[in-house]
Amino acid sequence: MADNIARVFADAIASDPTRPLLTWYDDSTGDRTELSGATLANWVSKTANLLVDEVGLAPGTPAGVLLPPHWQTAAVLLGCWSAKVTVVDTPGAVDVLFAAADRLDEAQSWSADERYALGLAPLAAPLRQVPPGFADYVVEVRGHGDHFTPQAGPGPADAHLLARAEARATELGIEPGARVLVDAARHPDPVDWLLAPLTRAATVVLCANLDPARLAGRQSTEKVTHALP
Q1: Half-sphere exposure of 116 (CA within 13 A, CB side)
Q2: Residue 93 CB: number of other CB atoms within 10 A?
């Protein structure tokens, strides 16, 4: 396996960048968003370029991420790891903070030079009202380049995260090339819902507020081969 997250992601989509890589459902809103590997890579590149070109972050710089499982969260996290930025989840001083619009109270515990809010709305719609002191992530990121070339080698936390992801992929029974359904409420850790599947070049059906009555039909429609326990 590659020694860095950016390469693991690239390898996972290399064989067919057009296949659905991450399919997002929110059963409380009816939202469904499907991203191919190429589309997610585009968002990842834009995020990495935002961090490097606009915010001016260097490898190892801390970034705070206060986001739930979501396809935009995948773009933020993979963008951070592509830029070799260190993602932290403990409140403190960071150079950049990404926060869900419904977690802004928590964001006050963080000291950050740059702050981006995410509404996580269907169709990546912008925020209706941008909170004071924040920029709208989906508005700001769109203006950045579609391609980003990560520096060679792993980021500071890559070895630890990939070791955890490999172990979890084995524990969760994720086979190479699987189509994996994930209940976001049961598996909020991105090591489970994002990195572990990527280490197996698996694709993900990520479900928030999962309605048990829709589970069987969704597994059939999405051609799911494995549901995380």
Answers
A1: 25
A2: 11
